[in-house]
Design goal:
3 strands; alpha+beta
Length: 119
């Protein structure tokens, strides 16, 4: 008896972060990622690292996307697809250096946005 069995996806729903990256399978559920905007490439990166790249490091990402991911980092969101339990452990907090970089990037992007609106 021959029948086709469609592949069943298991695990977490795919993160929206992959809309901004070219995703190539490595096997075992891992992928390489290449940024659509600056073409930086990673091997086996987690979505949280890719979000940080768009929010803090990518110089070519559109301002609206950069702001969206900066806000996600600022409020401590690590996934747009699933709710996470709040952890009272201090390791769940954003370290001070990362928090400062997020705040600086938010101030800079809002300043750029205001200049654009004024012109």
């Amino acid at each position: 008896m021959s029948s086709t069995v469609s592949e069943v996806k298991r695990g977490c729903k795919e993160s929206h972060i992959w809309n901004h990256y070219i995703k190539e399978p490595l096997g075992s559920g891992h992928y390489t990622a290449k940024c659509h905007y600056c073409t930086q490439t990673w091997s086996r990166r987690r979505p949280e690292i890719l979000k940080s790249h768009l929010a803090l490091y990518c110089k070519e990402v559109p301002l609206a996307i950069k702001s969206e991911y900066m806000e996600m980092l600022a409020i401590g969101s690590t996934s747009t697809n699933r709710k996470q339990k709040l952890d009272t452990d201090s390791s769940a907090e954003i370290d001070a250096d990362k928090k400062d970089r997020i705040n600086q990037a938010l101030i800079e992007s809002h300043s750029q946005l205001l200049i654009i609106l004024i012109l």
